[in-house]
Design a protein that fits this description.
Shape: globular
Number of helices: 3
Radius of gyration: 17 Å
Helix content: 10-25%
Strand content: 25-35%
Largest sheet: 4 strands, parallel
Number of strands: 9
Length: 139
């Protein structure tokens, strides 16, 4: 199915088959996942980005559930954007970097980030997959 946008008074309007949801963000949300080597890559990205991009950034690093994370402090040194650990049910705003805390999974729902405990199963933990899925479903 193709959807074409129609211009109405200088703004794009989606056809009636797909009207925006009430929780659609008026700004882009960028989700980034990292594992070994991820810190170097995200550091370089943030170092070279303008602090006023109009986007919200979510960084999910594969972290050991037993160790305290220093990611937020390390990333805050390379950008003037606000860098913060995700708090449950935080409303995303542009020009902010949200970092997943250890031992958590993260979902994006209705413009908010929601945390849940990391499962204690022997299965592989893939928190970035969960975040990407929920972002695609609601944003």
């Amino acid at each position: 199915m193709k959807i074409k946008a129609a211009k109405v008074k200088g703004k794009k309007k989606l056809p009636s088959k797909r009207q925006p949801k009430s929780h659609d963000n008026p700004f882009p949300v960028v989700a980034i996942g990292g594992s070994a080597g991820g810190l170097e890559a995200i550091t370089e990205l943030l170092r070279h980005l303008s602090p006023v991009t109009g986007m919200a950034f979510i960084y999910v690093q594969h972290l050991s559930p037993e160790h305290k994370s220093l990611l937020t402090a390390l990333l805050a040194k390379v950008t003037t954007m606000k860098v913060q650990d995700v708090k449950d049910k935080v409303l995303m705003v542009p020009n902010n970097v949200y970092v997943i805390p250890p031992d958590k999974e993260i979902r994006a729902t209705n413009g908010h980030l929601k945390l849940t405990p990391r499962p204690n199963s022997p299965k592989v933990n893939l928190p970035i997959d969960l975040l990407f899925t929920t972002l695609a479903e609601t944003h």
